[in-house]
Each structure stands twice: as structure tokens, then as C-alpha cells.
């Protein structure tokens, strides 16, 4: 499939994820839903929608941290990493623009990720992104669990949201945080979500390499990264 087609799929999938999740937040704050659980369901099921609609085209990352892990695992090239991240950010911004059109900038600002405590938010964003990435790297290659990928990944995201919404707002996705922040002009704590999900992605990839693949020598992988992330044979 062509690169443009893949990037469009990433933009649309991220649009679905951020848009539906944001509307779940707005609905919950308006008292129309069940708080944390409804928001978690909104994001988890939104990811399910994006995966079924567009995942087969691009691999269904919809998250720069996931794309970074795929690059480190030599599944995509540096060119695709850059293209995916740009597409994901564009999709997230467009989703927040739709929320702005439907409501107002205060509603968009309410969909941004906010930390109740910065240090706690850093810890959970790193930990949960690492776990999320480890699930994705394994289930998308597993002969045993591969058939459950379209359910396992959204359910993992749902569980993460239930666990850490009160602590960090549950980002684990820099694009998900950046889009609402830019459109809603609410930048409090944004730096946390632009840095630490990437740290978690790296740790999740390392855990996957060592614990699942049994690869304790990562030198070849880092050499491949320096060469532009040529896919492994």
C-alpha cells in the first residue's frame, strides 16, 4: 500500500480515537455518563473503531509512542515514523476542532490531559505506556494471541484509562494530548505528555525484546535505528 494511504489511515484512526474519546469526556462532565468508566469505554471503544476501520491499511498505531516502538522494533522506517507522527497529530487536531465546532473552546480545554501530581503522572505515564506498547508488540506478532489483537489492544487501553485517569488524565499518547491542548489553548502539564510516553515506549520495547524474544544484546537493533530503522528480515 502507498505511503499516502497509510498516513491517511493513521490520521483518520487518530481522529476517531481522540474525537470519540473527547466527546466521552464532554458527556461525562455534563453528567450524561458514568464518569471514569464511561471515559475509559469511550477511548477503548474508539480505538476499536479506528482499528477496524483503518488498522489494516497502516497497522493501526494512532499514537506516536506506538510508532516509536514499531520503529525501534524495525517494523517501520524512519520516513514512516515521521509520516505517521505528523498524520497522528493532524488527526488529533482535527478531532479537537470538531469538538470546538460542536461546543466551545472551554469544552476542548476540558478534554486535555491534566496531572493531579506531576511526579505521579510521570510515573504512571511511563509505566502504562510501557505496558501498552508491550501488549501491542506481542499481540501483533503472536501466533497464539494474534487473532485477539483487535480486542486485546483496545481492552488494554480501557484498563489503563480506568487505572490512571484521576492521576494523569491517562494519555499514553502524545498526539492525544497535543491536539486538544493546541485547539483548546490549555498547555498545563503538556510537557509531561510530550516526553514520558516516549520514555515508556522505549522501556516497553526493551522489555519485549528481553522478556519475550530473549534478546539481551540490543546492539544490532540500535545499529539498525542509527541506519534509519530498516525492517528486520
Describe the structure.
The structure is a single chain. With 233 residues, the chain is mostly helical. The chain has a single domain, classed as Glycerol uptake facilitator protein (Up-down Bundle), CATH 1.20.1080. Helix content is 75%, strand content 0%. It contains ten helices and no strands. Helix 1 packs antiparallel against helix 2 (36-58). The longest helix is centred in the N-terminal third of the chain and has 27 residues, at 3-29. The model has no long low-confidence stretch (mean pLDDT 90).
Per CATH, the class reads Mainly Alpha
**N-to-C order of helices and strands:** HHHHHHHHHH
Shape: globular
Q: Nearest-angstrom radius of gyration?
A: 17 Å
- Helix/strand-derived category reads mainly alpha
Find the CATH superfamily.
Glycerol uptake facilitator protein
What is the CA-CA span between the terminal residues?
Answer: 19 Å
Bin the helical content.
over 70%
CATH architecture: Up-down Bundle
Q: Tally of extended strands?
A: 0
Largest sheet: none
Mean pLDDT comes to: 90
Give the uncertain stretches in residue-range form: none
Number of helices: 10
**What is the total domain count?**
1
- Strand content of the residues, in percent? under 5%
